[in-house]
TrEMBL record:
The protein's name in its UniProt record: DUF4956 domain-containing protein
Alphabetic keyword roster: Membrane, Transmembrane, Transmembrane helix
Transmembrane regions listed in the UniProt entry: 25-44, 51-70, 76-93, 105-121
Length: 205
């Protein structure tokens, strides 16, 4: 209600909230967009080579930034800020499923927008927090800390190699057939009627 009153009440013919859209707003927005660009283009795309979610990531970040910046002009408790963050972070698409890694990046772009809008320490604090998020994300996605492991679902017909005592032969056969450096495998389901099994193979990129 207070936000609505400030938006609809003006004393000198201008709206009070929008008189504050000055250099501070532009600096915050510029730092935020630069951080998202590094995250999405420099880390996400470099790792997964996907560009179909660029619009989603940038749109979520931009909307979160604007809403949080406007709400920050009125009194808002920390609980309300975290509540706003939780609402947007729990959003799901009804028409298309989104992977856990994509949801993680969506969570990160929302966090960047929220931090950039409500941080009280100015540009230096904003750069520090954004830099920490980007650095940690880069390290976790790079092979510097650990080897990057990927998983692939495979339907396999040689069920005679499924028993644990045949595991080495199974791994060797999977490496030859898939061309991947398979180092471990999980048996998800065995269909004895079709003489086939559903496996999850894990390999290093």
């Amino acid at each position: 209600m207070l936000l609505l009153q400030q938006l609809t009440t003006h004393s000198t013919g201008t709206y009070p909230l929008f008189t504050d859209l000055n250099l501070n707003f532009l600096i915050r927005l510029g730092i935020d967009l630069a951080a998202v660009l590094i995250l999405v283009r420099g880390i996400y795309y470099r790792t997964y080579r996907r560009a179909d979610l660029f619009l989603t990531f940038f749109s979520f970040n931009f909307i979160i930034f604007l809403i949080s910046f406007l709400l920050n002009k009125v009194e808002m408790s920390m609980g309300a800020a975290f509540g706003l963050f939780a609402v947007f972070s729990m959003l799901r698409y009804r028409t298309e499923s989104i992977s856990l890694k994509d949801m993680t990046y969506l969570f990160l772009v929302i966090a960047l927008g929220l931090i950039s809008a409500i941080s009280k320490g100015g540009g230096v604090e904003q750069l520090l927090f954004n830099g920490v998020i980007l650095t940690v994300t880069f390290l976790l996605e790079s092979p510097m800390l650990m080897k990057k492991e990927s998983a692939q679902l495979v339907y396999y017909e040689r069920i005679e190699l499924i028993p644990p005592q045949q595991r080495d032969e199974l791994l060797s056969d999977l490496r030859i057939r898939t061309g991947l450096n398979v180092h471990r495998v999980e048996v998800n389901e065995i269909d004895l009627l079709k003489d086939a099994a559903r496996l999850t193979v894990y390999y290093y990129q």
